[in-house]
């Protein structure tokens, strides 16, 4: 390469970096990037967080998007924003973006901003809980509009049984057991099982399932993961079947699961891959239209978990289910 060519490449790199530094030169934009560390927010939610008009927030998001610091995510008729999923360490622009994220993440969020984030999560949680309260009697029928229980429960059970050949599970947690259909599997593989759900109606159904199946080693607890964290509970196995798309902050489920797991513990998740079928929000109470596999991998890594086996199941109605496992320590996975 000639000296002139090398100079041209250097200038092109600088030209590509300039929008990133311009976008990150504003304190408010850095705050926006910071709150998107694990969360995905819409324009109205971000306007609420930072106390500004939607038009002003839209301008800042446009600048951030153009620079590559955020990317849009369509959820039905609404647009949400998140940090980019794909960053290549070999590209100067992506390396710069990653360094900016690492720098802003070192600074803790102000308590006032954390309180506003908690308020938004509560709004989402209330919306989901209200749906299940209204439709608890039709829960199974509505969920099977998307995926029949056995289509995801069977491969999850097979994966756990395969791991059981080498790993003995003493205590297991199922987050969001619904009607309790998966509890007989966990009860038969683990000495003690905790089923955690924030819906009293769903727990009542799960209790009937336990009674009908004679499950004597299952404790049903109403609440969220904070309840178990406060008690100091610890588990060898955590399972979340088709739960993440119903919770206000899916990334926090992986973070809390990691905190609740013993060393060598395993988290198994089944959930929808990203889709565009917006009717699922109204008919099934979904808060999110599925997830990119890279999102779950990134959330797991942020929680200190190593991704293990993954399985993808295509359904005739256009949905796709992903079954994922994450380990708290680096274990040989075969």
UniProtKB/TrEMBL annotation:
Transmembrane segments: none annotated. It comes from the Bacteria. It holds the Pfam family Methyltransf_11. Gene3D superfamilies: Vaccinia Virus protein VP39, Winged helix-like DNA-binding domain superfamily/Winged helix DNA-binding domain. PANTHER family: TRANS-ACONITATE 2-METHYLTRANSFERASE-RELATED. This is Metalloregulator ArsR/SmtB family transcription factor. NCBIfam families: HTH_metalloreg.
